[in-house]
Amino acid sequence: MSLLETRALVVRTVEFGESDVIATLVTEDAGKVAAVVRGARKGSRRVGGALEPVHTIAVLLDDKGAELTTLKESRIVQLRTGVVSNLESLDAAGTALRWARHLFPPRTPEPLGWSVLIELLDALDAVPAGSVPPRRELARAGLAMLAAVGYGLELEQCAVCGRPCPEGRSACVDPARGGLVCRACGGAASVLLPAAREAARSLSRRATPSTADAAAVTDASAEALLGLVDRAMAAHAGFER
User: Fold this and answer.
1) pLDDT digits over 205-235, tens only?
2) Which residues pair with 180 in a beta bridge?
3) Is 54:127 a contact under the CB 8 Å cutoff?
4) CATH of residue 19
5) How crowded is residue 58: how many other Cβ atoms within 10 Å of its Cβ?
6) Is the CA virtual torsion 65, 102, 39, 50 positive or negative?
7) Are residues 66 and 89 in the same domain?
8) What is the dihedral angle through the alpha carbons of 190, 193, 195, 200, rounded to the nearest 10 degrees?
9) Same domain, 162 and 197
10) Whole domain around residue 210: which residue ranges?
């Protein structure tokens, strides 16, 4: 038996058999894994209430290298009551966790992606006392998550031919082709207006954008960027809202 102890986030649970659950976890040290949780629906003491999404949990997994691991123990190590008590924050957190479930590959650690998720959830937890709306935080995190797993968007020049995009101009963007696409290379149906493009460029220039960067994003730009992230997630990971 190989035991793995790591921090994790629950991104999905599905009922299995009469009393068990299969939990999909994004873990800090082992990437995305699926674990059978024995007796979860009968109130197993080893699990308690530690299968709720949003909160960071510590898990002990029996991992034999098969498709499914077995969760032996779990406990909450960081409770985020600010998220679960705010509907906008909870909705943003749920979207980010669904992104991670689709985007993160199985059994491949994604340390930057993990950091993006944790930073976002912590920021959303503080929203009632803060000043940045959850949708802006989510837009920032979406761009950062794409970059963390290798799907960062090219927003400075055409992703096909490399022709620079002039400053202060709207731009055609196609996430499936990697970012901006000039008209000579076929363009795209989707257009980023100058303000949204500049916000996206500013966030994408940072290797690890922080929550402070979200404050510079307007509500209108955030919605444009979220649409862009959704299309990128659909193109690369099959995510559909």
Assistant:
1) 554 545 556 666 788 888 888 988 998 998 8
2) 173
3) no
4) 2.40.50.140
5) 16
6) positive
7) no
8) 20
9) yes
10) 81-237
